[in-house]
Amino acid sequence: MSKPDDKAKVILNKIGIDYKYGVVKSSNIPPLPFILYSIPHEHFYGTVDKTTSENADFIIVLHIAEKDFNTEAKIEAELDGIEFDKNEEFDDADEYYRITYEFTLTLKI
Question: Staple partner for 43: which of 33, 55, 60, 95, CB 3.0–4.6 Å?
């Protein structure tokens, strides 16, 4: 049985940047670069007695001091074959980029 968190960790381990689930307070920001990820929504399919598959929404947020196309390409290589949305913003207060990837995976259970 594949769990969404297990699938996220497989992807993130291949990227090679420190990561954590959830959020961090601005006073506890780890050294850059780092990734925060979350699984904000899961939808299960099947019968009352047995779930057969699950759709899980993933959000991966890269926090990085300077724009780095190579790091983004590394993440996108791990998402190869997965349709995703990408958004970039600069945090003026903390002076780093946040690059967000959002996608949904269907997992067989």
Answer: 55
